[in-house]
C-alpha cells in the first residue's frame, strides 16, 4: 500500500531530538524553529515529559471516559490556574479541528442560531464546520459548503458592525485567531477584539478564540487575546497542549451548559494524553516559559526588524512572521538545505518561526547569524 502524504515531504529522516535541536540518521544536527507547526511547546524529549508518559503507560494507558479519570481533573485544575480562567469548564478532545468543530456546535446549540462569522485568511481545521469557517476554498468539499458561514475582512470594525446590524440575531458565533497563523502571522487589533466582544454581548453571539496555534503561552501570555484585556466565551486549543501527543480542548465560560452527549469522544482526555498535557503545564510553570516566550520572542522580533531586506516582521512572542520580498523567497529553502534550520512558511515569502517556548537566546542567536548569512548571500 502506498502512503498518502498529507504535505510535500522533505527527504530527511529525523531520528533523535532534544530541546530545539534534532538530528537525522547521518547525525546531522538541525535547529528546529518550527516545532512541527507550533506543536513542540516544551522542547523535544523534555525529561519531565518523557518520565510522566512512561510512568502513566506503566500504570494504565487507556480506559473509557465512563469511569473516573483523576488526571483529567488535575489537567483542568492546572489549566485553570495557568490560564487564569479557573471558572471555565474544560472539554477534552484530540485535535484543533475537533476543538473548533465542538466549539461551533456548542455555540449553535446554545444560541439556537446557525450563522457563523469568520475572517478572511482564517484557518480553523479540516473537519466539516471548522473547514467551512476556513478561508481556503481548495480544502472545502461540496458537502462542507454552507451559506451559514460569512467571511468578513480581518480587523475591519466597520464591516463587523454592519454585519451585526444586518443579521445580528442570527449569529451563533464569531470565531477568530488572535494571531492568524496559516494566514501569514497577522495580529488582530485590540480594538477589533474589543468590538467582537461588545457586539457579541449586545446580540447574544458566542465569541470563540481559536487559540490552537497562537495560544498556550506562545505569545508570552497564555491566550493571545489576553493582551487585549478581552475575554472570549470559548477558547479552543491543541498543538502545544500535548507537546506532540495528540490532545485538544475547549474551555467554556461559566454561562454555557454542555449537556451529556452533545460533546463527546472515545479518545479525548485519555490517560496518556492527559499525562502529556499535565507534564507540559508543569514545565510551563516550573521553567517560567511564558516569560521566556516573551523575552526571547521580543528579542528575535527586535533583531529581525534590523535587517534592511526584511519587508515586515509580524507577530508577538514566539509566533513570528518574517515577510521578505518575492525575490528572496528562496531564503527559507536555503535555511534548511544550507544552514540546517527548520522554519515554516505562509505564502512563499513569509517565513514562520514557531519554536519551543523554552528556546534559549543562544539558539535564537544561531538563527539570526544564519539568517544574516542567507540575506548576504
Ligand atoms: N486552528 C488553527 C489556528 C490552526 O493553525 C490549526 C492547524 N494548523 C487548526 C485549527 C487545526 O488543528 P489540527 O491540525 O490539530 O486539526
Describe the structure.
This protein has 377 residues and is α/β, with parallel strands linked by helices. It is built from 11 helices and 17 strands. It has a 7-stranded mixed sheet, sandwiched between helices. Strands 1-2-3-15 form a 4-stranded mixed sheet. It has a 4-stranded antiparallel sheet with strand order 13-14-17-16, covered by helices on one side. A hairpin with a 2-residue loop joins strand 13 (312-316) and strand 14. The protein is globular and about 55 Å long. The chain binds 4'-deoxy-4'-aminopyridoxal-5'-phosphate. 4'-deoxy-4'-aminopyridoxal-5'-phosphate (PMP) binds next to helix 4. Belongs to the class-III pyridoxal-phosphate-dependent aminotransferase family. GO terms for molecular function: transaminase activity.
The averaged pLDDT comes out at 96
By CATH's scheme, which homologous superfamily of the largest domain applies? Type I PLP-dependent aspartate aminotransferase-like (Major domain)
Integer count of domains? 2
For the record, the CATH architecture of the largest domain stands as 3-Layer(aba) Sandwich
Structural shape: globular
Number of helices: 11
Bound molecules: 4'-deoxy-4'-aminopyridoxal-5'-phosphate
GO molecular function: transaminase activity
Protein name: Aspartate aminotransferase family protein
Pfam families: Aminotran_3
Family: Belongs to the class-III pyridoxal-phosphate-dependent aminotransferase family.
Amino acid at each position: 500500500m502506498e502512503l498518502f502524504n498529507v504535505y510535500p515531504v522533505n527527504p530527511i529522516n529525523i531520528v533523535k531530538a532534544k530541546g530545539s535541536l534534532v538530528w537525522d540518521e547521518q547525525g546531522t544536527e538541525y535547529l528546529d524553529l518550527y516545532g512541527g507547526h507550533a506543536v513542540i511547546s516544551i522542547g523535544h524529549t523534555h525529561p519531565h515529559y518523557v518520565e510522566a508518559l512512561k510512568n502513566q503507560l506503566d500504570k494504565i494507558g487507556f480506559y473509557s471516559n465512563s469511569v473516573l479519570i483523576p488526571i483529567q481533573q488535575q489537567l483542568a485544575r492546572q489549566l485553570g490556574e495557568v490560564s487564569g480562567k479557573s471558572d471555565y469548564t474544560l472539554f477534552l478532545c484530540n485535535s484543533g479541528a475537533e476543538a473548533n468543530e465542538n466549539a461551533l456546535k456548542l455555540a449553535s446549540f446554545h444560541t439556537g442560531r446557525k450563522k457563523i462569522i469568520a475572517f478572511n485568511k482564517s484557518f480553523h481545521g479540516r473537519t466539516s464546520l471548522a473547514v467551512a469557517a476556513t478561508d481556503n476554498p481548495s480544502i472545502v468539499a461540496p458537502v462542507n459548503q454552507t451559506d451559514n458561514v460569512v467571511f468578513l475582512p480581518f480587523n475591519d470594525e466597520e464591516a463587523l458592525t454592519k454585519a451585526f446590524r444586518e443579521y445580528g440575531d442570527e449569529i451563533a458565533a464569531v470565531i477568530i485567531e488572535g494571531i492568524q497563523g496559516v494566514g501569514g502571522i497577522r495580529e488582530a487589533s485590540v480594538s477589533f477584539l474589543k468590538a467582537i466582544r461588545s457586539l457579541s454581548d449586545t446580540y447574544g453571539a458566542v465569541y470563540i478564540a481559536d487559540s490552537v496555534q497562537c495560544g498556550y503561552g506562545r505569545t508570552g501570555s497564555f491566550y493571545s487575546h489576553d493582551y487585549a484585556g478581552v475575554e472570549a466565551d470559548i477558547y479552543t486549543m491543541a498543538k502545544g497542549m500535548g507537546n506532540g501527543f495528540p490532545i485538544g480542548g475547549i474551555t467554556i465560560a461559566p454561562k454555557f451548559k454542555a449537556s451529556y452527549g452533545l460533546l463527546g469522544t472515545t479518545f479525548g482526555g485519555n490517560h496518556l494524553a492527559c499525562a502529556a498535557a499535565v507534564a507540559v503545564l508543569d514545565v510551563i510553570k516550573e521553567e517560567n516559559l511564558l516569560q521566556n516566550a516573551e523575552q526571547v520572542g521580543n528579542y528575535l522580533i527586535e533583531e529581525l526588524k534590523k535587517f534592511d531586506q526584511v519587508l515586515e516582521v509580524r507577530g508577538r512572542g514566539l509566533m513570528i512572521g518574517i515577510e521578505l520580498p518575492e525575490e528572496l523567497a528562496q531564503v527559507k529553502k536555503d535555511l534548511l538545505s544550507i544552514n540546517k534550520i527548520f522554519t515554516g512558511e505562509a505564502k512563499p515569502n513569509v517565513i514562520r518561526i514557531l519554536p519551543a517556548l523554552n528556546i534559549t537566546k543562544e539558539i535564537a542567536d544561531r538563527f539570526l547569524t544564519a539568517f544574516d548569512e542567507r540575506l548576504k548571500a
